[in-house]
């Protein structure tokens, strides 16, 4: 019905407005594209065994316990995990098993492929990291459990991956300015892989980012839980970098930084039915740091609740970058007590020293916000802070309704072009519309069509 509504709207728009004004045509084409944009949802063909215990048929079980793992939470089980991995990876149709009810202490480790056939990594127990940053292997400074070069693999189970991050957080310069600013490990990394499913795991108390997907194609994540306190520094939930065709769904993320962050060279990213909070929201970026190029295209967030977060849906870029963010749709989002529900920040500066404004910037265009409602903690419920030299363009808002518990709300625009139709509260009038009339017509027609639809339903 939504699609029907928009198609009718576009038809009426063309009929009422003609096809002469080039800007109007562009806007209609862009709207059409954004409305019909869909990311690929090709089901990854993997045998979906619910658990290794039921119908194990043909699977070879490689249990870390058989390689001497103690699972007492204190003995160093790293070597057992490495040995079990080697066997599992070189055995077709094997299940790398971390059994339930036990705690395995494991150091930073690279679990590298390619492996033989489809591999199942069944985590039912708890894997914990050693908690002392001083003893961390300096050659693996940024990773803890690092999986790479896998082709068709399933990570699943009711288990927990626990980064024991407390001492890392205390050592962060974000917590104490006299600490040096250096990166900490990511708890779970899946790198340079394809055909990956991740299902049901809990990742918590990570040293820094909880779960990174880098240089991957075709990844589906569902029923995952991420959990860390809201004051744990830089503990992003799920971080996507240089990856394509990624779906994250039915997951609950609470952390000290972005629930999800999508950075450079990523496209076709779909997120649906998510809960985010606490945290910094769902972000594209940051992009363009140190004059780098950042490109992110085709991102859809559909159906999410963000609660007690500092941002809602955010795009953040540094001054001096290049590249672009293009083709993004945020829809059906409920905000509860969110500081900046809708925000584009092209002056992002997450650095101990102040950032200078520059002429170059990552270009932001064709961003749609549809059916976003709820409560904001700050008055600036909608904020578009775009680059002076590279303005944001084709920002579209429709059916946005944000309220502040006590007080009025407003939209802030700086160098931002676009338009709103349907209900948009606070109003999007500050957007530098390329065609004011289009906006007016869109609004009147939106009402008409809505009434029409109600008629036919009666
Ligand atoms: C695992 O295999 C790699 C590559 O064949 C080898 O270098 C390494 O020593 C093996 N590790 C263990 C613990 O067997
Ligand atoms: C794990 O890390 C500890 C602390 O750095 C170290 O003593 C131990 O040898 C490591 N274990 C393995 C198997 O590398
Ligand atoms: C910050 O770190 C310094 C140096 O490590 C330490 O002396 C100080 O007590 C720390 N401050 C807080 C508030 O933890
Ligand atoms: C962005 O991604 C491209 C393509 O993968 C890569 O070559 C480039 O190094 C990346 N840039 C940054 C800043 O990471
Ligand atoms: C980025 O480019 C600007 C302008 O050319 C230059 O002043 C600045 O030093 C560059 N920054 C970095 C980190 O390379
Ligand atoms: C709103 O969020 C803030 C920050 O997380 C929290 O301190 C406050 O209690 C929340 N307010 C309500 C009404 O839930
Ligand atoms: C708008 O979004 C809310 C929150 O996700 C959802 O419950 C509702 O069904 C959506 N409305 C429409 C018309 O899709
Ligand atoms: C950068 O530009 C923005 C927008 O024009 C302005 O508000 C801000 O003060 C500038 N920052 C610096 C450091 O010049
Ligand atoms: C806004 O639109 C007006 C009229 O088209 C134009 O003169 C002005 O430069 C635009 N401002 C920005 C910041 O894009």
Short description:
The chain is α/β, with parallel strands linked by helices. It is 16% helix and 44% strand. Residues 1-5, 14-23 and 451-458 have low confidence and may be disordered.
Give the secondary structure arrangement, pairings included:
Layout (H helix, E strand, L loop, with lengths): L1 H16 L4 H15 L23 E4 L8 E5 L1 H13 L3 E5 L4 E3 L3 E4 L6 E5 L2 E3 L14 E6 L2 E6 L3 E3 L3 H5 L15 E6 L2 E6 L2 E3 L6 E4 L2 E6 L2 E3 L10 E4 L2 E11 L5 E3 L3 E11 L5 E6 L5 E15 L3 E7 L4 E17 L1 E6 L17 E14 L3 E6 L6 E13 L5 E5 L1 E10 L10 H22 L1
Parallel strand pairs: 1-3, 2-4, 3-6, 4-7, 5-8, 6-9, 7-10, 8-11, 9-12, 10-13, 11-14, 12-15, 13-16, 14-17, 15-18, 16-18, 17-19, 18-20, 19-21, 20-22, 21-23, 22-24, 23-25, 24-26, 25-27, 26-28, 27-29, 28-30
Question: How would you describe this protein?
Answer:
It comes from Stylosanthes scabra. Residues 1-21 form the signal peptide. Belongs to the glycosyl hydrolase 28 family. Keywords: Cell wall, Cell wall biogenesis/degradation, Glycosidase, Hydrolase, Secreted, Signal. This is Polygalacturonase At1g80170. The protein has 458 residues and is an alpha/beta fold. It folds into two domains: 1-50 and 284-458, no CATH class; 52-257, Single-stranded right-handed beta-helix, Pectin lyase-like (Pectate Lyase C-like, 3 Solenoid). The chain is 16% helix and 44% strand. It is built from five helices and 30 strands. It has helices at 2-17, 22-36, 78-90, 166-170, 436-457; strands at 60-63, 72-76, 94-98, 103-105, 109-112, 119-123, 126-128, 143-148, 151-156, 160-162, 186-191, 194-199, 202-204, 211-214, 217-222, 225-227, 238-241, 244-254, 260-262, 266-276, 282-287, 293-307, 311-317, 322-338, 340-345, 363-376, 380-385, 392-404, 410-414, 416-425. It has a 19-stranded parallel beta sheet that branches. An eleven-stranded parallel beta sheet has the order 5-8-11-14-17-19-21-23-25-27-29. Helix 1 (2-17) runs antiparallel to helix 2 and helix 1 (2-17) packs across helix 5. The chain starts with a helix and ends with a helix. The structure holds 2-acetamido-2-deoxy-beta-D-glucopyranose (NAG) (9 copies). The site of one 2-acetamido-2-deoxy-beta-D-glucopyranose has 5 residues, from loops. One 2-acetamido-2-deoxy-beta-D-glucopyranose binds next to strand 24.
């Amino acid at each position: 019905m939504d699609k029907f509504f928009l198609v009718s709207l576009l038809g009426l728009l063309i009929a009422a407005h003609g096809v002469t004004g080039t800007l109007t045509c562009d806007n209609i084409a862009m709207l059409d594209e954004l409305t019909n944009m869909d990311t690929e949802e090709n089901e990854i063909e993997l045998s979906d065994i619910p658990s290794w215990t039921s119908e194990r048929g043909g699977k070879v079980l490689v249990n870390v316990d058989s390689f001497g793992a103690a699972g007492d939470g204190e003995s160093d089980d790293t070597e057992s995990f490495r040995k079990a991995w080697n066997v599992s990876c070189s055995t077709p149709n094997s299940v790398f098993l971390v059994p339930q009810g036990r705690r395995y202490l494991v150091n930073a480790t690279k679990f590298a492929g390619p492996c033989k056939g489809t591999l199942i990594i069944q985590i039912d127990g708890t894997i914990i990291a050693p908690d002392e940053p001083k003893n961390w292997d300096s050659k693996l400074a940024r990773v803890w459990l690092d999986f790479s070069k896998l082709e068709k693999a399933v990570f699943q189970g009711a288990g927990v991956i626990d980064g024991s991050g407390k001492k890392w957080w205390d050592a962060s310069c974000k917590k104490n300015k006299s600490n040096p600013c250096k990166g900490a490990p990511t708890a779970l990394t899946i790198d340079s892989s394809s055909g990956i499913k991740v299902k049901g795991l809990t990742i918590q108390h990570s040293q820094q980012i909880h779960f990174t997907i880098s240089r991957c194609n075709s990844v589906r994540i569902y029923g995952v839980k991420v959990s860390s306190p809201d004051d744990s520094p830089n503990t992003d939930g799920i971080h996507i970098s240089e990856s394509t065709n990624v779906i994250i769904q039915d997951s609950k993320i609470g952390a000290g930084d972005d629930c999800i962050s999508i950075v450079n060279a990523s496209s076709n990213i779909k997120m649906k039915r998510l809960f985010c909070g606490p945290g910094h929201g769902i972000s594209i970026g940051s992009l363009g740091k140190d004059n780098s190029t950042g490109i992110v295209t085709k991102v859809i967030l559909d159906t999410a609740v963000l609660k007690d977060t500092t941002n809602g849906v955010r795009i953040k870029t540094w001054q001096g970058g290049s590249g672009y963010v293009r083709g993004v749709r945020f829809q059906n989002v409920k905000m509860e007590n969110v500081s900046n529900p809708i925000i584009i920040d092209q002056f992002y500066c997450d650095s101990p020293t102040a950032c200078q404004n520059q002429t170059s910037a990552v270009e932001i265009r064709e961003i749609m916000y549809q059916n976003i409602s709820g409560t904001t903690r700050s008055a600036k419920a909608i904020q578009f802070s775009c680059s002076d030299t590279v303005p944001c363009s084709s920002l579209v808002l429709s059916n946005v309704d944000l309220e502040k518990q006590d007080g009025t709300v407003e939209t802030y625009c700086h160098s931002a072009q676009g338009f709103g139709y349907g209900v948009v509260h606070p109003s999007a009038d500050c957007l530098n519309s390329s065609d004011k009339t289009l906006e007016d017509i869109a609004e009147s027609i939106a009402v008409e069509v809505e009434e029409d639809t109600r008629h036919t339903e009666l």
